[in-house]
Amino acid sequence: MTQQEIRVKGTVQGVGFRPTVYRLALECQLHGEVSNDCDGVLIRLSGMDVKIKEFLNRLNTEAPPLAKIESITHAVIEHAWDYRDFSIRASTHSAGRTDIAADAASCAQCLLEINDPNNRRYLYPFTNCTHCGPRLSIVNAIPYDRCHTSMHDFKLCAACEAEYRNPLDRRFHAQPTACHACGPRIFLSPSSLPTHIDPIQRTQSILDVIQQALVDGKIVAIKGLGGFHLCCDASNHASVEQLRQRKHRYAKPLALMTHDTAAIRAYCQISEQEEQYLRSPAAPIVLLNRQAQVDVNFPVLSTAIAPGSHLIGFMLAYTPLHHLICQRFGKALVMTSANLSGEPQITDDEEALEKLAKTSSNKAAIADLVLYHDRPIANRIDDSVVRCHTFGVQVLRRARGYAPRSIALHNSFQNADRILAYGAELKSTFCLIKQGGAILSQHQGDLEDVKTCDDYEKNLALFKILFEFSPTHLACDLHPEYISSKLAHAEAHSKNLHLLGIQHHHAHIASAMAENGLSRTHPKVLGIAFDGLGYGDNGELWGGEFLLADFCESHRVARLQPVALPGAAQAMLQPWRNTYAQIRNSMSWTEFRERYGTTKIAQFFEQQSLATVDRMLQAQVNCPLASSAGRLFDAVAAALDIHPDKVQFEGQAAITLESLVDQNYLTQLLRVDSTERCYQFEIQSDPTTQLYKLKYELSAAPMWPSLLDDLNQQHSQTQIATRFHAALIQAVLKTVDLLRTQYPFNDVVLSGGCMQNEVLSNALQNAIQERGLACITHHLVPANDGGIALGQAVIAAARTIKKIDIGHNE
Q1: Domains of the chain
Q2: Quick one: which of 55, 416, 594, 725 has the fewest CB in 10 Å?
Q3: Is 18 a catalytic residue?
């Protein structure tokens, strides 16, 4: 006989972990108790030693589907406990760290119930259990108990109470559990339905109205888990176009939803891995390649769904309400966030009715009908977006289904604590490090929008409450005008906290290193950070960098050649400005007009105020230099007549350029023995450069005459786009080879928004691995600025620990 105390850390609350412990303890004939606290789950066992060993083995293999065990520690207790059975104790409160589960898609058992006319939860839109349903979207505090969620005002009926109290029931302590009799209800505006009718009949009637509205081509606003969506028939072109006009979202792709993968296969290719992600509890939007030919049994999707892209973003219905709507409609539905373009998703019922509902006084309404419910959304959460490729999966937006799961860091970070990183300005997130764990917030959006910034501050305050977090060290981007940096400086000043400024591209590289579990003392890696723009160490604008880096420091050893951004911020919105600057960097204007004056881009230039741009360039006024890979992609796209005048969203031109690439032709171009003509970058070097200083510069100038020659000869966009990608890939690999002769690195890390380009990242990963180097990329956090906060946090942690270690050594 022995007594042991067992501590389980990770995502172990609100996922049915205690009932699993209870069942295993009974089956292993053990006495004791289990309880939740702010460190996770605490188990006390009394019984035969062999039975406790069996219990521990089974706890790992039979954990609930939503649980994520980070660690299990156990210790033998000398004194005897007087336990006569096994019980589940009430939650206790103490300072510590535990994870809050992410919202999870409806499980198979709950879906069976809502479709069973003999079940008391038939057609109930909020059916859930410990294996599925809302989590972060409803929580206000910890421990995760019903009183700390937005379900606190819904008193359980006798039947639900019995399930909630039964440790062997799958709804034991499922905090959002409810039914028609005691739970949230759905409402419709405008509505003429009678108020006093049977709940099932009422729900049936509302669903019938929604079904008919969608068939009639109307736009419906639907309140989901983390915010409202706008919904319409994806095959009704007029409806989709009308939604775009009303929402002011004129070009950015729209997400689609359906209830099964059969409907998705009619339009898209789905690999085994992609299907796993579609069906996972996270149920993200998965970017899928279009089918060459659509199944004739399914209606053709509107061409306005994803213009200029070979990808379509699909997700499966993830709440009972979505399932009930999708099952009835049967076809693919547009399911996009309900907001005006650039603003955060609406979560409040009153705001939704005021801004979205179509009334006589609201002529700017977006939706014809608004379907809402009376369960408050405590925390706004957007849909997550992922993309699968040859080397795994990339999370492009980390939100519903993933946040706020912690990201396991190497145990060399176990002493890191009380660090808060504020992230970037676009695609912003923030990150807490508490007791060696990294907690990355959900995607917040672009902080340039006032409402998004307010939401960012609200969520930051909430996370401090949820995780009982009070920082002593802050980290932010070096850019002085980032709103996130300004917030960090204000907080540091008001509370006298230590603030570390972290270089943007170093943070990119460190985030990939951290999510891949590299040690705090890992040797320097070669980091390749390609993105739009980031503030450099010297105050310049960077965006195409090769860094020798570890967690504490980085040194730029190569870069793309800086080229002017005519009009600064305007160059990010109008790609032709980048094309003009790149061409002027390659040849004189006279030569360009003489040789390429008949091309479309030359004719486009003639319609612009080039005299003004030339004066700006000559005087170096509002034309900062930038080594930006993102702006180079924009320049090439505009030269090919792809959105030269204006982009409607970040990366639009580059996404279209990527979609034009012919993979077979690219493979042929990249072969060592290829005789195909390829564009060339010039790699310029400075032999006098000292160690860890800028040594190589990749110039795109030699590429432009060849590219423009192809335009003159009317080569296809596909040929030119493919040759450009091949040229950039070859230039990067040549630079890696040159740097390898100078520095002893074994790992190459790829990060930055441009590394979300599948053509670029897959080719680089394959070639780098062929060279016998390890290639480290993103899988858990975005390669774009959504991952910056994690990188800032681990850099700050490494520097802080190193400083402490040095202090101890002294």
Answers
A1: 2-88 (3.30.70.100), 186-373 (3.90.870.10), 563-743 (3.30.420.40)
A2: 594
A3: yes
